């Protein structure tokens, strides 16, 4: 069985092939049962989350991700997301690979947002605001830069020091990035805004969004979390990775649905419909688009298969 550590997983998941692989999996006959989502009490700290996410393509590959999210791990200088992906043959059941789950999650999440941006962000998008300076931030900036001609990046975080450190890391990767102190000003200047936080309260206000903005919401993965306010929902065309997930789990969708501000039929499309062409994405340069991602097991399966093959696994099961 092939075993890939964090570095090997990163090297086996280059951006454009990964974005294409995720897109292809949204078209594939992939079976994705409802994931197990369990809250785990951590005495004296924020509650943790354990996710179990299975998926398979009949006769080809199957896998499951076991992911632990511990919000207070920064107090221990440990990553917030720790996990493992087990990839198997869906023809024989043979274990094929064990892929480091944190890196797989970070990269497939960013790749999914970039895939959505292919359909929802303006083709001439040049500026990006990254809200949040955690593990996903660099991945999201790099992934979006792979699909749009981004020239400038601003990083905002509640901690100015973390924002500056993230911007410095981005510069080391060749991105023109700076830390921003004024969130409203940075949002008003951005063609793409990507949020990856654990915020309980809205960070981005709809009044800040200029025509043509694309808002990518990746964090706030529980119903009581939120990164955008009601005005964002009211002004934007709303898209999701999957209706089943976003309408149940993501507070940016769940809360407006509950209040009646948003109705289910007003969600323009889920990602599978954009990829297949059955529903349109952006149709004019003036539209404000909003994409809410809560993650889907098929994204992990796509990444694990790509990593397996890129690292020298058999091309076919």
From TrEMBL:
SUPFAM superfamilies in UniProt: NAD(P)-binding Rossmann-fold domains (SSF51735)
Signal peptide span: none
Gene3D superfamilies assigned to the protein according to its UniProt record, in alphabetical order: NAD(P)-binding Rossmann-like Domain, ornithine cyclodeaminase, domain 1
Keyword NAD: yes
UniProt xrefs under InterPro entries: NAD(P)-bd_dom_sf (IPR036291), ODC_Mu_crystall (IPR003462), ODC_N (IPR023401)
Keyword NAD tagged: yes
UniProt keywords, alphabetically: NAD
Family: Belongs to the ornithine cyclodeaminase/mu-crystallin family.
PANTHER family: KETIMINE REDUCTASE MU-CRYSTALLIN (PTHR13812:SF19)
NCBIfam families: PRK06141.1 (NF004793)
Listed name of the protein: Ornithine cyclodeaminase
Source organism of this protein record: Pseudorhizobium endolithicum
